Amino acid sequence: MNSVEGLVTQIQGLSSTASDVLSLHNVLKQADDSLHAESTRLLPFLDQLDPSKHSLGYLYFLEACTAGPVTTESASSFVLIIARFISSCAAEQIRLAPDKFISVCKRLKDQVLFLEEPLRAVAPMLAAIRKLQSSTENLTTLHPEFLLLCLLAKCYKTGLSILEEDIFEVDQPRDLYLYCYYGGMICIGKKYFRKALELLHNVVTAPMSTINAIAVEAYKKYILVSLIHHGQLSTSLPKYASTVAQRNLKSFCQPYVELANSYTNGKIADLEAYVQANMEKFGSDNNLGLVKQVVSSIYKRNIQRLTQTYLTLSLQDIANTVQLNSPKEAEMHVLQMIQDGEIYATINQKDGMVRFLEDPEQYKTCEMIERVDSSIQRLMTLSKKLTVLDELMSSDPMYLGKVGRERQRFDFDDFDSVPQRFNI
Amino acid sequence: MDGEEDASNLMMEANSTGGVDEAPLSSTTTRRNRPIISGEPLDIEAYAGLYTGRTKINRLIFIASHCDNPAMELEALRMASDEIKKGENTQLYREVVQKIEGRLGPNYEMDTAWCSMIELKAEQRKEKLESELNSYRTNLIKESIRMGYNDFGDFYYAHGALGDAFKSYVRTRDYCTTSKHIIQMCLSAILVSIEMVQFSNVSSYVSKAEQTPEALDPPTTAKLCCAAGLAHLEAKKYKLAARKFLEVGLELGNSYSEVIVPQDVATYGGLCALASFDRTELKATILSLLSPAPPLFSIHNKVIDNINFRDFLELVPEVRELINDFYSSHYASCLEYLGNLKPNLILDIHLYDHVETLYDQIRNKALIQYTLPFVSVDMRMMADAFKTSVAGLEKELEALITDNQIQARIDSHNKILYARHADQRNATFQRVLQTGNEFDRDVRAMLLRANLLKHDCNLKASRKV
Fold first, then answer.
1. C-beta atoms of B429 and A351 within 8 A
2. How far apart are CA A142 and CA A105, in angstroms?
3. Which of A48, A147, B328, B416 has the fewest CB neighbours in a 10 Å radius?
4. Which own/partner pairs from B181-186 qualify as long-range (CB within 8 Å, at least 24 positions apart)?
5. Shortest CB distance from A311 goes to which of B411, B444, B453?
6. Under an 8 A CB cutoff, do B448 and A168 touch?
7. How deeply is B378 buried, as exposed, middle or buried, from its count of CB atoms within 10 A (0-12, 13-18, 19+)?
8. Owning domain of residue B446
9. Which positions fall inside the PCI domain (chain A) (predicted)?
10. pLDDT tens, residue order, chain B (465 aa)
């Protein structure tokens, strides 16, 4: 009892300057176990602390409070408390104890999921990410949690705003896999297939020493999105993918690989029969929606091929070539594609003819010049980053040691001792 | 096509009157010694009369098994069995008799007496050859050993054991002393390989023979060119085959009738050239010879050397006419000649599985050549020129456009074909933007992966320390 109150006083006292906060941190670390022991009684003490000034202390108390199992009564109150804390806490203080912060946020997620109101935690989680990140290029453990909440709450746009940022630093590989996987799913939901393909590709080709389930699921979606977006699947993973992935991924995703083969053969009837036959397998992976999109994309691809050969074509002929049932269906498909901007055409209903037009983009406008210019700037920045990384790597002692040991020796002079360690 | 139906009708009529010789003559020639490979039904006797040796028998059996006409089939089988009886191949004899199934009367049933007599003689001869060979081998006289193996090869060849024949011929290589011997060995090996349909061996032995130029007289060079041409044809390399056949000199004459005759050289060479050469090469190699007036001065070596081919083409005037028609854009008559020739070409032992491909290639080339000079083409007129329906033509053109062999677009409503040339500028811009995006994506992924690997390394390093 006393220790807790003493702790509260200390927190209130030592939260003003940075050095005080550091010593407070040590005190709190030592008191952590006792706090956990008293977890049930800590709630009233929270009122004595101010989340914005005493963030570190508040954090420890909060973490100890929420350590227990989730119940309905506690859940709603905790959600409010945690949300308020996140919005008002001081970023420098919580960065001293990132694990605690992360576990508090995870509790928040558990509680809103328990209450089945994921939307309540979306904004707080976004704020939490911003406070925890050291820079926008940093991936924290909270990123995948946030994306999961966005998925469950179906607010894809907020999720997309996070996905726009480039990630270059990663704390934990597992975070990256989950982040890319959920990110891919959000992009699929918004039909940004190119970005989805990029994210899923990152998961599938990431360095890993053993196969994990995230990579397998990601590969399944990767196959389907690749079929929708490109109309084909490259048969082997690129060389930089890990060897375990190259060897094992295909065997885990056998029905999908066969679906891809059936798709590239181009016979729509075969494809549909295959999908029918394997409905439960696709359904158990929750990929039925994607698979249906794959089937409809084969019609689109065939119609697009027609634009390369014909200037005008009757709807009846389109229906026959693409194996649709009637000119009416063909008209609907073509109309949909025109609206989505996938082809350029006009439909003449009187004659039942479709006239295919060229892409009207002439690449002569100012916007186009700006686009090319900004693209060039962006690429130059990226190149510089790459060069910097390369230089860093070349001066890394471990790398030099390894290269030195393995270099070829041609001259007598080469046999002098190679420094194994630099004493700087 | 209509041309084909007429030809088969003629076949029916001709055989019902009891004599193939009474078939009406084609309009292109009224000479008494008619060309053998023509649009008319095949005159089997004349055809078979061109060849000698095993190829005659093989060709007759092939015709018998592939033609639809039972009278023709029986005729071929009869001639085959007669020819076999002149030789010593009992295995082949049995096969042919089985195929005849007694339909030709008692003379053509299994003559077991003849078979057993031949086999007995074969055994005796084989023993004699073996003992001779052994004695030569102990004496180590190179020339006699070589001749011994040669005799063995001939013996096996006559009895139909082609694999053993080939092995024996190849064995003589170690005992060849002059280049003439080498040439002889190569020629025998080539002959057996062609029979066995192992054309890779043919190519290797042809090149081996060509490496000894001092002993090569013109007939031999001609034979080697033919063999090489056949090998390329079998490998579906039509351009190379055409070039080889065009190099064959007139000295071939009938010296290689156990494999190929000049009519065949003309037909194979002409068709392959038409299917695979482009216009300039076609003109340079074949067409300049078709003009009656000789060139005043030599412009191109190929032309002069190829006066020969003109004489070859004289033997098959239909092929000559059809090449001429193709070059001068009379596509309807060209395709008509092709259609007429087809039934007989399918009966040719070397050409039958290439006929479809060659015909398709020639037809596609004709279509492409037709559309090349125009900005827009009325498909109805084109369909007339090619004697086909507009719908059929549309399908063919669609296939060619998808294959990128014609740069055009079809206006299906008005049935017009419009030429279309890719806009380079737009295509370049598109590629630029796409390359930029790909670079962006790849570099970002690379940096990410590098970071992950560094993370791994740090973990390992921290564990070690």
1. no
2. 8
3. B328
4. B181/B146, B182/B208, B182/B209, B182/B212, B182/B215, B183/B209, B183/B212, B183/B215, B183/B216, B183/B220, B184/B150
5. B411
6. yes
7. middle
8. 426-460
9. 192-361
10. 444 444 444 444 333 343 334 334 333 333 333 455 565 677 788 888 888 888 888 888 888 888 777 888 888 888 888 888 887 788 888 888 888 777 777 777 777 888 888 888 888 988 998 898 888 888 888 888 888 888 888 888 888 888 888 888 888 888 888 888 888 888 888 888 888 888 888 888 888 888 877 767 878 888 888 888 888 988 888 888 888 888 887 777 777 877 888 888 888 888 888 888 888 888 877 765 555 444 444 333 343 345 677 778 888 888 888 888 888 888 888 888 888 888 888 888 888 888 889 998 999 999 998 888 888 999 999 998 888 899 899 989 988 988 888 888 888 888 899 988 778 888 898 898 999 999 999 999 988 888 888 877 777 777 765
For chains A and B, CB pairs below 8 A equal 100
Query: Per the structure, how many domains does chain B have?
Result: 1
Sole residue written with tokens 């690989």: A257
What is the model's pTM?
0.68
In a domain, B395, yes or no: no
Residue A222: list chain B partners with CB under 8 A. Answer: none
Single-letter amino acid code for the residue at A364? K
Residue B443 lies in a domain: yes
A247 token code pair: 């060897």
* Best B375, B376, B423, B449 residue to mutate vs chain A (most A CBs within 10 Å): B449
Using CA atoms, how far apart are residues B58 and B44, in angstroms rounded to an integer?
Answer: 13
Q: Is residue B372 part of a domain?
A: no
